[in-house]
Amino acid sequence: MSTMKKATQKYLKEHNRSLIFKKMLDQNPTSRANLARVTGLTPTTVSEIVSEFITDGLVNEIGIGPSTGGKNPILLDIVEDSRCSIGLDLANDRLSGGIVNLRGKIKHFITISLNGAEGDDALALVFEMIDQLIKHKSEQIVGIGIGAPGLINSRDGLVINAVNYGWKNLPLVDIINQRYNLPVHIINDCQAAAIAEKQYGHATLATNNMIVINVRYGIGAGIIIDSEIYQGDGGSAGEMGHIVVIPEGGELCRCGNRGCLETVASVKALLRNAKSLASQNPKFFSNLTPNALTFDLLLTSFFESNPITIKLVLDSAYYLGMAISWLVGILNIQKIILIGDMTKFGEPWLAQIKNTVNEMSLERPRSNTKIEISKLGHKTVIVGATAALASDYSFFFNQ
Ligand SMILES: [Zn+2]
User: Fold this and answer.
1) CATH number, domain at 66?
2) CA angle 373, 378, 384 (to 5 degrees)
3) Torsions phi, psi of 214, nearest 5?
4) Domain boundary pick from 24, 43, 78
5) How many CB atoms lie within 10 A of CB 9?
6) I need a labelling partner for 61 at 20 to 30 A (CA). Which of 79, 99, 173, 301 fits?
7) d(CA 157, CA 369)
8) How many domains does the chain have?
9) Are residues 220 and 365 in the same domain?
10) Are residues 252 and 391 located together in one domain of the fold?
11) How far apart are the CA of 349 and the centre of ligand 1, in A?
12) What pLDDT score does 202 carry?
C-alpha cells in the first residue's frame, strides 16, 4: 500500500474514532445501532471502533436497553474515570489545579498562593502544582490544559504577557511538555471559562452565542460566537478589564492607562478602596487596620450589612454594568455569565449590574438579555482548560 493511502486511512480512522467518542460523550448511555445512526458510519465500522474502546478500558457495556423494534440493544457508556487530564488555573493572585475526568468532573483539587512570585519562581510553583496532582492518578493522566491570564498565543503555546507572573513570550507549553512528556494546551483563562460554560454549564438560555465575564483580581471575558471562541484578529478579544470607564482622574492601572474597568470593579480595586477608607477612619470596618482587611472579611461585612462595604461593592457593580451595557449594545449577545470571586457578593451585586445595564442600553438589544452568575463555581477555568485540550479526542486513545 502506498504511504499516501496509509496516511489517508490512518487519518480516516482517527476521525471516525473521535466522531464516535464525541457522540458517546453527548449521549449516555447509547448503543452501537444508535451510534451508527447519528454518525452515519457503517455498523461494521462502529462495531470495530467500539471493540477497541472496550479493550482500551475507555467504554463499558452496561446492560440491555429497550427494543425499538428489533433485537434489544446492548447499552454502552464511557468509563468516565478511565482517562483524566490536569487542568490549571493561573489566576493573578493564586494557582489552582485539578484532575478532571472525561465528563468534566473534578476528582482532586489544590490551590497555591502566588505570594508575589515572578518569573522562574512562579514557574517553579506551576511545576510544584503539577507534581502534586500527578501523584494522585499518574496512570490515567493523558494531558495538561492551562488557563492563564493575559495575552496568550494558543497556537504556538506562548504566554505573550502575564504581568503578575512576570512572564513575557514564555514558551510555557514546550517547557511543560518537555518536563512531563504529556500533550499540553494553553488558552486565556476567560476563554477557558467560556468553553466550560458552553460544554458543561446549565444556564437557562440555550444559544450558540455567549459572553463569560471573569471578575476577580483582574477582569476579562471569553466570547463565544456561533459556538466558537472568538479570539479577535490579534488574539486579545475580551480584554474588557482595560476598557476605560473613568476617562478623567481615574486610578492608574497595571496596563499603564488610567480609569480602566479593573481599577474600579475588580477584587483588587475593592480591596484598595476599602483599605484607603480604613486608613481614614478605623471605625468603618470594626477597627480593622488596612493591612488586616482581606477579601473574605469584606464578604463577611457585606453580608452583615456594613453600609460602607455595601456601597463599595454596589459602586463596583455599577461600573461593571456600564461596561456590560456596551457589550450588549455592540454585540447583542443575550447570554452573559459572570464568574470569579466578585460573584460571591451574589444577588445584590447582580441586581445592581442588571439595573445599570437596563438604564444604559437600548431596549431592543437588551430585552431578551439574561445576565446570570455561573452555576459551575470557581473551578470553571480548570474544567474549561481541559475541555480545550480535548478538542480532538485522539490522545485519549491508545494508538
Ligand atoms: Zn488597564
Assistant:
1) 1.10.10.10
2) 95
3) -100, 110
4) 78
5) 11
6) 99
7) 35
8) 3
9) yes
10) no
11) 22
12) 62
The residue range of the domain holding 25 is 3-78
Residues 27 and 95 in one domain: no
Q: Quote the ligand 1 centre to 138 CA distance (angstroms).
A: 40
Both 155 and 303 in a single domain? Answer: no
Asked whether residue 74 falls in the same domain as residue 89, the answer is: no
b/e per residue, 75-95, with b = 16+ CB within 10 A? Answer: bbebbbebbbbbbbbbbbbeb
State the distance from the centre of ligand 1 to the C-alpha of 102, rounded, in angstroms.
37
Residue 289 CA, ligand 1 centroid: distance in Å: 28
Q: Residue 356 — φ and ψ, nearest 5°? A: -65, -40
**Claim to verify: residue 251 and residue 170 sit in the same structural domain:** no
56-97 per-position pLDDT tens digit: 999 999 999 887 777 888 999 999 999 999 999 998 788 999
Amino acid at site 146: I
Q: How far apart are CA 32 and CA 151, in angstroms?
A: 44
Q: For position 108, which CATH number holds?
A: 3.30.420.40
Q: What is the pLDDT of residues 266-276, one digit of tens each?
A: 999 999 999 99
How many Å lie between the centroid of ligand 1 and the Cα of residue 168?
A: 17
Q: Please give the full DSSP string across 313-335, using - where no structure is assigned.
A: HHHHHHHHHHHHHHHHHHH---E
110 and 147 in a single domain? The answer is: yes
10 Å CB burial of residue 115 (0-12, 13-18, 19+) is: exposed
DSSP notation for 330-342 = HH---EEEEESGG
What whole-number distance in Å separates Cα of residue 294 and Cα of residue 182? Answer: 38
CA dist list (Å): 79 to 53, 102, 152, 241, 358? 10, 8, 33, 40, 46
- C-alpha torsion sign, points 358, 360, 362, 368: negative
Helix (H, G, I), strand (E, B) or coil at 187: strand
Q: What is the pLDDT of residues 114-170, one digit of tens each?
A: 888 999 999 999 999 999 999 887 778 999 999 998 888 888 899 998 878 889 999
> How many angstroms separate the alpha carbon of residue 286 from the centre of ligand 1?
32
Of 63, 78, 93, which residue constitutes the final position of a domain? 78
The CA 200 to ligand 1 mean position distance, Å, reads 31
Alpha carbon distance, N-terminus to C-terminus of the chain: 20
Q: Whole-angstrom Cα distance, residue 280 to residue 286?
A: 13
Which pairing describes strands 158-162 and 84-90: parallel, antiparallel, or unpaired?
unpaired
Side chain identity, residue 273: N
Q: Which three cell numbers stand for residue 398?
A: 491508545
